[in-house]
Write the structure tokens for this entry.
Amino acid sequence: MATIYQVSELAGVSLATVSRVMNKNARVSEKTTKKVEEAMETLGYRPNSMARSLASNRSNSVGLLVSEVHGPFYGAMMSGIESELRASGMHVIIAAGHSEEATEKDGIEFLIDRSCDALILHVEAVSDEYLLELSRGRTPFVLINRDVESIEDNCICLDNELGGYLATRSVLDQGHTHIAYISGPLWKKDAKERYLGHQRALQESGLTQSSSLSFEGDFQAEGGSQGMRHLLASPDAFTAVVCGNDEMASGAMDEVRDQGLAIPGNISVQGFDNVGFSNYMFPKLSTVDYPVEAMGVMAARWVLKNVYNKNDLAVKNVFRPKLIARDSVKKLPR
Amino acid sequence: MATIYQVSELAGVSLATVSRVMNKNARVSEKTTKKVEEAMETLGYRPNSMARSLASNRSNSVGLLVSEVHGPFYGAMMSGIESELRASGMHVIIAAGHSEEATEKDGIEFLIDRSCDALILHVEAVSDEYLLELSRGRTPFVLINRDVESIEDNCICLDNELGGYLATRSVLDQGHTHIAYISGPLWKKDAKERYLGHQRALQESGLTQSSSLSFEGDFQAEGGSQGMRHLLASPDAFTAVVCGNDEMASGAMDEVRDQGLAIPGNISVQGFDNVGFSNYMFPKLSTVDYPVEAMGVMAARWVLKNVYNKNDLAVKNVFRPKLIARDSVKKLPR
DNA sequence: TGAAGAAATGTAAGCGCTTTCATTTATACC
DNA sequence: GGTATAAATGAAAGCGCTTACATTTCTTCA
């Protein structure tokens, strides 16, 4: 492996000059530049990234912590981040947090120890205080899908309340008035906010959520099934169910069918997230689009701007969800 | 940030000794070890990973190239790899190849330049020759889902031919005799082998594939829809379709329904891969399990064994697919 | 008890770059 | 042509570790 020294020898210049032409961060005469580039070419020189990092104190790596590496949601997020960062020559190191406090903290430490220049975090279990504390450290980070007071600028969020509102609004607009709700775990802020949006939509129509028609699930398919079982066993009738995310909507749909009912004939189902498979379901799931890939890209831009000084980039912190009407919600006659 | 030097000072020993207790690669007396560990503790010392890498010529990072960062298939793969490697303290750097030759090569170079100790590659577009050439370089790599002659030991594969056989065998076992096939792009080895397995199953039952009932798709939902449209327009009747993967099965199912037919009432559908959403589909898709997460784990083990000298690990190169019978294939009366 | 050998520790030379500061060379202007 | 100034280049000191080799300290056993 050729080193910078050999290049400098062959080009008949000093180490410093070679470094300068590599980094284009100081003026070098055209003639010298050419000599150096030729030398690099003939030696097949590739700079040693570790040496560069050590000397410059920049690793050009960004740590990415997601709850799960698999799953359509994180896939889209990682995809946006990877492409945006690689286009700028940075690499991304991934780690999983599994929505558990200890694992999330561990992952963050791991990434920091790995000399990441910045972190992109999708964390759920860790407390706001921990994140505030972290923000006083020397590794900058940006949060996806989390809004922490006093470091709002580091947060890239979806307006979940609005999303919850849109989801239920859409069902109301189709004439439904008896609406059940299966929420995510309410200790998760996004689950809570979606539920609040749902309630706002109901209130706007002069309705309130009957407590027997509301169920707290786990954001997984199984929780959706459980929820639907619970709801169908309730004395109160309903014609539609709004779910906190698409996975639970899927589970709920399975249960509806298991009980011999039709979708959307007997029961309409509304999801949230618009993850990849919602379009593969049958009937195709009406849902709310979570622009997760775009938000991933934005997180990457935040890093490029705030850590790598690409100041011309604009960063948008709050994204608006959008209703995706498909086939799982039936229009009711008035 | 404390350095090794400060630790050595506080502990009253030399740099070398501190390094030794960090790496546990030479004997240090118990007494000294304790002194050093205490010093580390009180200084909150964290080794600088870049300096370690430069000095030891080991980055403890493994590059992972997948075709797409999103998508259920790669998600499961990455998940297996990430967890296995992180448990051993290695980190994984991801890059996407997008199934295009130039992008794949570019990604590989990128990862090599990033000083990865090893590469885990899921490549499709790059040639066998290129990979052989690469194998002569100094960065070791392991291939997932690719079988290259003369470097078989570096390959972690699924027996796709067997999978194709099982898929069709299962449909035959349910009494179907008029079977259509929607393959993946036949230039991809796995698509080809699955198709071959399919044909073997047919032959075993004394049947042959009617050419009008065979369609070459693109491994995407859209290709499945196209294929089904094509097949339904053919003069030959069929009661079942076997698809090269689950995405195409999903697309095919949409088309079947669009034409007013029932699944599996009129047409049975068999998939391949058992990706996450196949269980969310309706009816639940009968498919063939591709143990992609396990294969990811195995690729990680290959790296641990061959690059990081964890010799006690066993590596299995060829995985066997398994039939997953669900609801999309109907049993025909004889 | 002391010599030989093993175990523990220290010394110092890198690893391949970046960057500050000093020096040389080119350019401009009177 | 000579001086002031700017531009180009070079010399060398790190960055924070690892590790080969040298040295010191401890064991062992005749």
Notes: The longest helix of chain A spans residues 72-87. Residues 3-5, 15-16, 19-20, 22-23, 25-26, 47-48, 50-57 of chain A lie near DNA strand C (CB under 10 Å from a C1'). The domain at 4-47 of chain A is CATH 1.10.260.40 (434 Repressor (Amino-terminal Domain)). Chain A touches chain B through 47 residues (CB under 8 Å).
